[in-house]
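Lab meeting prep.
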Amino acid sequence: MAGKKVLIVYAHQEPKSLNGSLKTIAVEELTKQGCSVTVSDLYEMQFEPRSTRKDIIGDLYNPEQFNYGVEAWEAFKNGCLSEDLIEEQRKVREADLVIFQFPLYWFSMPAIMKGWLDRVFVQGFAHNFPQCYETGLLKNKLALLSFTTGGDEGIYSDEGVSGNIRYLLWPMQHGIMHFCGLSILAPHICFAPEYASEEEREQMLTSWVERLKTIWEEEPIKCTAEWYYK
């Protein structure tokens, strides 16, 4: 949709990977629609995932005992966060849709992406209790997890050894995204691309493009325990 702004937070080391291809065709399709697309390529940026004293510029609120959550909150209020965090927060603030593109690692996102969330979604910017969930500070924005898995779809089913894939999504979609007020679109999952044929991988890319063509017409999921665990 012309005029919409999209941020893709991308975490993969190899541009030729399926994740890299999914990111690239998302940029192409959304740009074709007239959207403005920005990519935070975390590995390419050498994004620092660790939350440290370096995130705060200038004096600490309490130099006697370092509490990252408190210090980041105070720094955000006073405009004293490091430049890299200010830049990433600007991208999020301007976006109508944030797409997280990554391979599933240990039932979660890669550490570099989790670190991005730890450092960027600080109190005051993304949430400020009781302003969370439906009243989170990032409300009126959409989020979508697009990821690949190592195992096939059967492994992530009710009968599979890993359980229903929705169980894994609860902490990411509900505990992070929804907590900060984001409306969550259904995840886009490419199962076991490493073991797929070239034709099957091409179909994965085609399916992603087809979905993106109508992405702005989608309704968010009901981000409740009943949706995840029914």
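Slide two material, second protein:
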Amino acid sequence: MSLPSKYAPEGLSREDQSKTITSGHVRPRRPVNYTIRTIEDRIADAVENQTYINTNYTNGDIEMVPMDDHSEVDVISEFVNYSRSAGSFALDDDSMEGIVENSSDFEITEGNISYLVVDTNFILSHLNIIDEIKNIANEYQLKLFIPITVMHELDGLKNSKRITSESDDRISGKSVGHLARWANDWIFSSLSNNSTVVKGQKLRERLDKNSQQDDAILDSALYLKERYPNSLVVLFSNDKNLCLKALSNEILTVSFRKHMTAKLIAETIFKENIARFGVIQSEKLHIQREVPAPISANTNQEKVSEEQVSNVGTFSNFHEVSQKVYQEIQIITLSAVHHCMETAYGDDLDLIRDYDKESIKTLHDCSQVFIRFWLPVFSTYFKSLRFVPFEESGERRHSKKTPMHVDIPSDAVELHSFLAFWSKVLTILYAAEMDENQNSALEMLIKRWEKMATIF
């Protein structure tokens, strides 16, 4: 009997004609990578939205598609690393390089300046955060630095046509190309508008001219560290190997964390800068912040002079003055509050519920510490000064008490009230906890703040 076949002498039976006859091994389909699918769908929606805006002749903003979790960040980082290893980057357009070389350098200014070096994978994944940092950079004395290698890589990626196949587990080059084009447009816009916050690396701003890829990015950070020894240099990258290289060279790093925000990053960097270099003013007033004492003598053990107090610096508007006074008071108050908590609880402080030094970052946080620990800690310091605790609903419980000023003053009247309140708070805390030199330094600072408050 022959095998079932339409070519056999007896042909196929009626039953066999209704069957699907196959042979060999059926190759299973590769499972769908939903992380990649999600990213590409969001990018496609952004492209469609941008096309709609352009066809309606309106000035749309640069699209920004943030990566929301570690798996999405890894997809972008792996694509960049793959492209680097494959040598896929080639500079097709030298217009960016021309703008960079003809642009001015960062202004050499005193203060707690921090330089943020941005890696390719980070600006692709978090362009929204980089943009937000740019908007608040002056408030936290930040500068954004784009390495030559990053500009070259973005230029190479923006024209990528690579399409993902079923056997491929990487995002398509077309989708990454859109991210790269938006990042490239953002950099071009910043540089062409002569931004004082965003600068591109010039060819001469290198230590090792033969370094390539991630080593070249690290080299740009090391150049800044050598060029600005009294400033903090931080690398923004999601490349773990590059971050390890940076840390081994004493360069701090920022990588993706769930729920990270531009403000949180900026505040953390600013505090780290203060912790390392002290409060640096344009008038060369150096006050180091040491734990547990919030104010100590400067590195040369010199006293703050009346001349230094009279030199309050240069400000172009009231907001700059208000911001500066607010930042300095906040820094000193944060340290003073922690010092008082250490005095009260000593080695048991780590066991206290509702208090975590790392989570106390603002004047509002300080006010909540005052409220929570009023009876066991702070009531012993204050006998005449009274606060207004606020419920979460925003209603006052004791309307006759003096309100705590925790927001940046918006006008001269608010600034004077703000300054009067916190000057009194700090004076009382210092009188109880600090030595004569520290109290003298605080007194001089208060005089300077009062003079700054009269500028506008």
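Talking points for slide two:
Residues 166 and 290 are 58 Å apart (CA to CA).
The chain is about 50% helix and 5% strand.
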